[in-house]
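G., before I forget:
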Amino acid sequence: MTLPGIMADDRAPAIQFNNVHIGFEEGEILRGLSFSVMPRDTLILLGETGMGKTLSLKIAAGLLRPTAGHATVLGNNLESMEEKELLGFRREIGFVFQEGALFDSMSVADNVAYRLREEHLDEEQIESRVQEALRFVELEHTLDLLPSELSGGMRRRVSIARAVISRPSIVLYDSPTAGLDPVTSQTIITLILRFRDIYGVTSLLATQRLQDGFALANFRFDSATRRVLHDGAGGPEKQNPSITRFVVLRDGVVYFEGEPQELAETRDPYLQRFLI
Amino acid sequence: MGEMPLQMTGQKPPQEEAPSVAGVVTSGAKELVAGLQEYSYLAFQSLTNLLSGPYYVQDILDQMDGIGVGSLPIVLVCGFFIGAVMVLQTGAQFTRFGQTALTGDVVALALVRELGPTMTGILVAGRCASGIASELGSMLVTEQVDAMRAMGTDPSRKLVTPRVLGSILVVPLLTALMDFIGLIGGCVASVFTLRLDIVQFWTRAINALEFGDIMQGMTKPVIFGFILATIGCYKGLTVRGGTQGVGRATTQAVVLASVLIIVANTFLTKLALFLANKIF
């Protein structure tokens, strides 16, 4: 699988949506969505339920085809690709589903190892990488458990381990903290932050919770001290080269696009609803 | 947000239109054609997947085990009693003409040609088409199928083809076992109710069968296996409406597979008789 976009020019967007439309029998959901995410950056897709956040992520992963417009990811023009080509392309992408979407008849270890088995890696290598991925999400003791034996937060963490085990260059997170208590949500966001800052991945995160986006914008993971540190929120003291931006969806289009600071200081009544 | 009027969210309130008869018929016909097209594509792809890799051999073996070994008890029990009841029904008629020896012929022909394949097909459809539809349907509504695609796996190759191939391979074997156990059931009933000799029953049963009958009896279950697995997969992978939809799809899969097996049997019988005359 060649990734011409990212390899040819590191400053080309890793993800680019250009006037993307998608609709179903009930009507059009995305009505001309355009945004881009640069390599290693983070884009927070913020919006109420039913605004097309999940659809946007699924289009970015090539799981759905836009009815009009262009979606380009890692230099691949997704709407012109055959399903067979898309299968290869998706191996470069990690996807964390809202409810985890773990295979419920497989153990945690088999879930995390799934992608590596598909790539026919030898079992010894698979085992060590599964343990490494589960250690990353602090769940190495759950290897032999079934997903049904885990709590909601643990399932999300396993889902993150499964998505990142092949070290994708882009990870798409679909409401990773939805329905979780604040402490567990914080754990999930810390994991996302660690993965972003250790491996330098591009992240596209759909959420309804503004605080998830602010946490990713204002904090960084320091590999040397292995601690999460405040990162100056875009000020001169900011050390993290990764930029976090927000896109607010409303009625299938971008209602707001900008830096966290702009969103925090907004006087727009619709946007202020997210700040409460 | 849930309590907010739709106007405030910028969405238009849904406009209710009175449905017309023509509209309902047209949309129903469109849905039927689209469904038929989707099913044909799934069924065709399940076979063309075999022409190129990747192959999921372990999944095929698991399906053969689940469909074949799992269905064995019901097939054997039903086969035995179907053979026995045939003797009870036909024996009474043959007794009137003093031709009870013909019972072996009738049981063998009916079981091998018709009852064995059809009953096995319907029994396995009842057990496995429902199981396949509910399993795949649950996977679909919990986004496991999407997760599979997101990790670069083709669900058609990983989920559909192993089930179809597994079913095609084991339903003929189950049919052969049903035929055999049905003959044993018929033999037991003949010995106890008609006082027939065991050797006489088996000799007549075996002599009554020709190569064409066995071919007919072994070809039909291949088609039935294909029908029940593809219908189960299709209904499972097109579930709409959450867990309630999964329940609906499960029922529809069993009903549709059973009906299609009976309908297909008629055409296959006609074809088999035509070919038997031409070839054998």
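Residues 91 and 194 of chain B are 7 Å apart (CA to CA). Residues 1-10 of chain B have pLDDT under 50 and may be disordered.

More on Monday.
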